[in-house]
Amino acid sequence: MSDINIKITDREGVTHDVVAPTDMSMNLMEIIRSYELAEEGTIGVCGGMAMCASCQVYVINDPGLESMGDEEDAMLAEAYHVKENSRLGCQLHMMDSMEGLEVAIAPYP
């Protein structure tokens, strides 16, 4: 089992130190849900299909995330509260290279 340490700031402005497994095929949206860092029904509304942007986060510290795919880019082009450092949590799959990742959960539309 391999875990990484990440920081997630919730929508209330509270930062949480989180341990995330990299060997369970989880994405950041699922980590946020499992730690209950966003109100039920306000994160991952589409089930992680990059179709709603409810899992949008702002990347504060990028230890080397994979590049954004076309579906993620298209969804963010239509989303609210988008910034230059916006990403969709459902598209960020937990991997060892993400050690030290810091994000803030974007406001829910």
UniProtKB/TrEMBL annotation:
Keyword Ribosomal protein listed: no
GO molecular function terms noted in the UniProt entry: 2 iron, 2 sulfur cluster binding; electron transfer activity; metal ion binding
Keywords, sorted A to Z: 2Fe-2S, Iron, Iron-sulfur, Metal-binding
GO biological process annotation, one example: P450-containing electron transport chain
Record's protein name: Ferredoxin
Organism for this UniProt entry: Chryseobacterium vrystaatense
